[in-house]
């Protein structure tokens, strides 16, 4: 512990005298865990503690006996402490007195423990917040009861049931109180609300509810804020309520919701991030907070928050300069407010999507920013360390004399006292540490929220392109300028720009939206001029711009993140398919912020973890929200795969793997959601006379899904089976037959996948490969599936089985299917008959789906024409069915690539043929993938892939005859 400097020696002498007097009253002997030396330090550090000890030694003795200072200050402890004072309340005057004495006791122990570092920052903030909660709640409860005796009980519609019920006030705590981060000497920002309009009953006179709660609010403020001989409890600030000081003191839920929806401003969103029900009707308060959530947390990524916070910070900075507040550790450069701005910017931007950011405590949110890869760990660690240091300094400043201040002291005596409180030998050592923290905070704030370099670049782009965008140049001059910087179709590009600017949607934009558009377009044109084919890319990017004209926060996102704009231009330049995806779902722009994750999609395990995290806080029964999250999850990760394929960081085989993994992860969760929903209504299907928590249900993937060959627009070929007893029933309150249960389960799964929502369709589902096709049951028992496959299935259905595999559902059911598939594929077959049937089916497909002879433009259909992909697939399926009885190992895979490799290893297909067919297959499929990203079909020039096609056809003739 640092030595006491000479300047504080006289104070130490005074403290010693006070302690001698206290010792006579036995006050400081009550808690043996606190030494006299500790008491000396505490009273030396804080004039507030010294004044209380000197003025109220009797009270102090009572306090120490009831609640030793060595014990932590907990919420339960604060509540128990208030009960001692409440017992003495007889009228409003005594309520005021007891509240103040209660505050003095609690504040004494909070400052004492904080200054001696018996408490860490979290305990100090939580204790100060609990003191406020208990004081507000205790005062409100007493005053409400008293008000009901005078004016009657207010009645109105319950916010949930709508029934007429007695009503109570709800007190919202804002700012640090709402965040459970209150200072040791802070004012409290409050908002008063009540559920609904109505009137009082059973009183001497009738009041409408707003009058009642306004009067109650006025009395509550007086009980807390009024300065009496005993001091005050908390300074109360009501200016954050709707309409500020000119607004009603208490508003109904409906009025509050209407205000924030219609008139809520950016700074009010910022304030609402920390709002919390601190007193009153907690149940009704939860309803209110839920209704206000959409105002605070937007469903889309809202980068306008950066701009708003930057404007707020600029306003504060002007005030700092005007009032000379550079030494203010809250408002000055690198101060507490800048850390709060950084954190709350991400909350406002991403909180609607990432619910883990919908917390109030800053120190809990910083690690989440690191977990979500929004900030590096080094940055969050430095911000957290600075926050703890600065808040401790703030408490040191305020606890010295119980004054609300964030100004560093300018006298040597107070500087020495603050340095000691913070554990430093002298002021210069403390100030060096303080400066280091503030410099780091200021740097991170500038990097994240306020970049002068970016603003300079934007200004330069604006000057260069504004005339073109605003149509201030003659068309031919504008075209010449566009051509000079590389636009390959300058006149057409200029026309596109003017068409957008003059469109009805653009003309109807609000002032702020138009300002953002006028800022963005020059920056976009600058970015386009640096890329390939800027005219073609402009047409693609303008689809997105048109789509977001009513949600211009997306334009702010791109303005705030030049790297994201660069990736947008690059991806749209290389793929019109990606451009269309972004235009249809602008929310995907968020993925452009992190180049590392954009071009390196996650593994299947990481996909599962990501989806689990996203759905963690969404109840399974909230089907609509579940469906929205699933759709966004799929689109997000498919975009990453497409970007990676274009960038060359994923080869074809991996592209299909990733797209298949995405589908599998989605299907797994869809089964869980649908199963859970049905179980909640009907219970579990009985399985062998016992309850099972497993679903006994499996989803079988056929075609591209089964073959691990999904493309960007592939549908899902699915078959549903179950292994439960078809004659059994479920064990819930509303039992149904197992067969009915599984049919409904299948229907629900198809609905979740197929349904069109505002975010589009999850997957198109094709169920025609199930037994008996469209006329068959949606879900089959495994035994019925087996019977059909053995007795009634066509050869082409056994071909399809070669590419089938279990993709989601019960592990036991999936294993049972795999065993049956193996058994079915290994049946001995007449090879000549099999060959004839396979060839017959192939000819039908070629006639119906291949290129028609005599077409004006001769083309080659990569999949269906002679020498195409389907020829390879049919050969492989024929060989699988013909030779699995002799080589059972052939059935272990469902994808063509590994099946060809196994056919080569088994000697069924010459190794050279297996390898060359594999290469040709990859070449053709790669082309289809690339063309899909260009919005092109599977038809190419007639002479394309001549050597591959000739080779495939020669193998076909050798194998199929």
TrEMBL record:
Residues 45-285, 565-818 form the Glutamate-ammonia ligase adenylyltransferase repeated domain. It catalyses: [glutamine synthetase]-L-tyrosine + ATP = [glutamine synthetase]-O(4)-(5'-adenylyl)-L-tyrosine + diphosphate; [glutamine synthetase]-O(4)-(5'-adenylyl)-L-tyrosine + phosphate = [glutamine synthetase]-L-tyrosine + ADP. GO terms for cellular component: cytosol. Residues 461-961 are annotated as: Adenylyl transferase. Keywords: ATP-binding, Ligase, Magnesium, Multifunctional enzyme, Nucleotide-binding, Nucleotidyltransferase, Transferase. It is an enzyme of class 2 (transferase). GO terms for biological process: regulation of glutamine family amino acid metabolic process. Its cofactor is Mg(2+). Residues 1-453 are annotated as: Adenylyl removase. Belongs to the GlnE family. This is Bifunctional glutamine synthetase adenylyltransferase/adenylyl-removing enzyme. It comes from Marinobacter nanhaiticus D15-8W. The gene is glnE.
